[in-house]
Design the sequence.
């Protein structure tokens, strides 16, 4: 345990320059080391919060459109989807089911052409499994009627095609008679029934909904291609999917939403880890200021060290004095940085909005980042990790200067005093 006098002297050395006005440069270096560690910690907390918020917001918008779980019949079409839905509902985690079909193609409006994925749905069933079907989105999709050849476009897709409700678009897709050497397109005219918006650019700009009956006619089939399931907790989708695969009667292929977007989520998690490592290096560089400050402090306090040694202080006590001084500097920086980082992370969306308004710029391009506002989600586990790493680096930075202080020769240090 550290003796009380060692703590008292370490604290006094930390405060002496500012109190007496002497050794102002050492005092300045102490402030620089505190500020450096604090800014590094704050930056690390804010960046990790942004990465968490980005993953949360984009993931939530993905899940609102994508299926929690998709079930396909290995034999082809799912002709008796109602029976499969009842079979899946025996799992207590499954809350609802809806059939679907997907039609890839190109949408044309005059001289504008955009690729799109058309999903055939039964509106009354889709509302049970899709979180985005609320308010205006639900009203637009409820307008889809079998045989009416209506289409609901993503908001960005409608803007790109320059169409609104009541206008017409042409769907072009390969015909059943197409071959590798002779691709014959088939076309179909749709009336725009409305638009939907989920806040995810990929879906808003490349997806559309049509009625299931119209999709089956386009694909020349008489049944949906699969079943979309909604479960109570989307995070449990892999476990529920595996349970369904084992319990469903028949040969079924089961896929959860994490498999469909595994590359994206893995990339975001990898970026978060890399940002943590890079910004930790910034904290490490700031911790080197503690080394420089302690080295100068040891040089300045050589006479004090010699006097303490002649009074009987052991080398380990001398080392502890300067470790206390350096560690307190680091802890002050960590405390200040944690407070600043947490406050910024909590208020980051408002801060970013204010900066955008003041400078007249948009910080996030929705064509690249899928979202337009800066998200933030503060996780205390991240804060704990950042604080732990910063304190450890601050402690390590005190070891060499403190050890060097024990090498002071009392007779030589007092020779010119």
Sequence:
């Amino acid at each position: 345990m550290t003796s009380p006098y060692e703590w008292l002297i370490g604290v006094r050395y930390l405060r002496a320059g500012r109190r007496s006005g002497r050794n102002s440069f050492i005092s300045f270096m102490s402030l620089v080391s505190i500020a450096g560690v604090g800014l590094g910690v704050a930056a690390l907390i804010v960046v990790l919060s942004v990465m968490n918020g980005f993953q949360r917001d984009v993931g939530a918008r993905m899940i609102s459109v994508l299926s929690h779980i998709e079930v396909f019949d290995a034999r082809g079409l799912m002709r008796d989807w109602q029976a499969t839905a009842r079979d899946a509902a025996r799992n207590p985690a499954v809350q609802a089911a809806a059939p679907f079909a997907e039609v890839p193609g190109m949408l044309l409006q005059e001289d504008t052409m955009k690729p799109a994925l058309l999903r055939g749905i039964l509106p009354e069933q889709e509302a049970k499994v899709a979180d985005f079907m609320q308010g205006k989105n639900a009203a637009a999709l409820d307008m889809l009627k079998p045989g009416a050849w209506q289409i609901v476009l993503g908001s960005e897709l409608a803007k790109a095609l320059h169409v609104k409700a009541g206008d017409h678009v042409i769907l072009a897709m390969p015909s059943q008679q197409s071959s590798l050497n002779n691709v014959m397109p088939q076309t179909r005219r749709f009336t725009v029934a409305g638009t939907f918006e989920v806040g995810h650019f990929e879906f808003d700009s490349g997806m559309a909904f049509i009625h299931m009956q119209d999709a089956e006619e386009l694909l020349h089939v008489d049944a949906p291609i699969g079943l979309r399931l909604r479960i109570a907790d989307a995070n449990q989708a892999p476990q529920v999917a595996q349970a369904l695969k084992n319990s469903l009667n028949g040969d079924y292929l089961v896929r959860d939403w994490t498999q469909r977007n595994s590359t994206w989520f893995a990339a975001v998690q990898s970026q978060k880890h890399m940002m943590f490592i890079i910004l930790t290096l910034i904290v490490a560089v700031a911790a080197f200021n503690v080394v420089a400050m302690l080295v100068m402090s040891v040089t300045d306090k050589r006479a004090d060290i010699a006097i303490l040694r002649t009074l009987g202080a052991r080398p380990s006590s001398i080392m502890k004095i300067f470790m206390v001084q350096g560690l307190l500097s680091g802890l002050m920086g960590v405390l200040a940085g944690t407070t600043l980082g947490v406050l910024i992370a909590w208020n980051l969306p408002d801060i970013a909005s204010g900066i955008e308004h003041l400078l007249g710029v948009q910080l996030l391009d929705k064509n690249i980042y899928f979202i337009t506002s800066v998200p933030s989600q503060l996780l205390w586990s991240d804060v704990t990790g950042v604080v732990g790493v910063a304190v450890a680096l601050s402690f390590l930075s005190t070891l060499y200067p403190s050890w060097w202080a024990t090498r002071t020769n009392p007779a030589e240090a007092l020779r010119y005093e």
